Amino acid sequence: MQLTITKADQLKTNPDDAKLGFGSIFTDHMFNMDYNPQDGWHNPRIEPYAPIDMDPATMVLHYGQAVFEGLKAFRTDSGAIQLFRPKDNFKRLNNSSRLICIPGIDEAFALDALKQLLVIEKNWVPSAPETSLYIRPAIIAMDPFLGVRASDTYRFFIILSPVGAYYAEGFNPVKIWVTKNHVRAVRGGVGEAKTAGNYAASLYAADQAHKQGYTQVLWLDGIEQQYIEEVGAMNIFFVIDDELITPLLSGSILSGITRDTVITLAKMWNLKVAERKISIAEVMEAHASGKLKEIFGSGTAAVISPVGELNYNEKVITVGGGKVGPMANKFYKAISDIQYGKAEDPAGWIEPI
Ligand SMILES: *Cc1c(COP(=O)(O)O)cnc(C)c1O
User: Fold this and answer.
1) How far is CA 252 from the centre of its chain?
2) Are 31 and 158 in contact (CB under 8 A)?
3) Which domain holds residue 279?
4) Domain identity same for 180 and 321
5) 299 in helix, strand or coil?
6) CA of 196 relative to ligand 1 center, distance in Å
7) In the chain, which stretches have pLDDT less than 70?
8) Does residue 353 lie within any of the structural domains?
9) How far apart are CA 197 and CA 185, in angstroms?
10) Does the C-beta of 297 come closer than 6 Å to ligand 1?
11) 2 φ, ψ (degrees, to nearest 5)
12) pLDDT tens-digit profile of 218-262?
C-alpha cells in the first residue's frame, strides 16, 4: 500500500507553548484511510486537516460504531521527538474494533503512517515543560444507511493536537465521587473497548458528580455494585499498607497502557503489587483502620492523578491528608522522565521519530 502525501498550501500559526490547553487546537495535516469490502483498507493518505464530508444518514452518527485511541508525542531536551508505547495503542485499537465489528488495520502500517505524519508536523510538537502533541486515531462507520447492522465502509483517521501541562496549577489531588446510581459497563458488554458509546453513557453521572463539586466518577461493577472498576478515563490504584492494588481486568475495564506501565515499574522496583478484585467496602474499611495510604488514577492525559477525597454513600473520606502521596509522586516522575527522555527506557517503550 502506497501512502500519498498532499501538503497544505497555507500553514496555520503555531500557538504559544506556554498557553496550551487540551484538545481544541489541531495541526495542519491529518492521516486518512478508507475501507470497503472489495478493496479492504485502501487509499492511505496524509493531507491537509479538513472536515469529513458525511451524509446525514452516516451510520456512526446514529449507532455510534466508532473506536478511538489516545497517545502522545514528546519533545526531549535535545529536540528529538518520541512516542511512548505506540504499538500498544494500535493493538488496543484493533481489539476495540473487533468488539464492535470494525475490520482490523495493519498495526505496523498505521504506526509507520503516524511516524510520517509526525515528521511533517514536527514543528507542532511543543517544547515547554510538560507539554506534548496529543494523537487521536479513530475509526468510524461510514455507510449512509439507517438499518442497524455493522457498516460495510469505514474511515480511519489520525489527528494531532498540541496540549499543555495537565496540571497547570501544579500536581494536585482530585475529588472523586463513587456512584451507586449508574454503571459504566457490565460483564459481556463493551467496557474494555475504547468505543464512543461508553463515553456517552458516562456523561450523566459525571454531570451529577460535577454538580456536587467532584472532578470525576469512580465506577463500581455493573452487577453487584461492590467492586471497583475505574474512573472516567483513568484506571485506579490503591495503596493499602505497603501493597499497591488495582482492579483485575475483567472485560468491563479499559486495559490502560499507563496502568500496565505502573504495574511493570512496580514489579521492577520489587514493590508488592496485586491485580485483584477490590470492593469499595474494603477501601472504606482500610481508611477507617488507617491502612489506606494513597489512591491515584493512571491514564495518558494526566499520567498519574492523585485522589485526595472520595465520596461514597454520603460518606466523605480524605486520603493521604488530601496531599499527593509518595507513591503517586514516584510513578509520575518516573513515567514522565521516561516519556521526555530524561530517564533511561527500561522496557523498550520509547519509539523515536
Ligand atoms: C483511555 C482510558 C483509560 C486509560 O488508558 P491509557 O492507555 O492509560 O491512556 C482508562 N479508562 C478508560 C475508560 C479510558 O478510556
Assistant:
1) 15
2) yes
3) 174-339
4) yes
5) strand
6) 13
7) 168-169
8) no
9) 10
10) no
11) -100, 125
12) 999 999 999 999 998 999 999 999 999 999 998 999 999 999 999
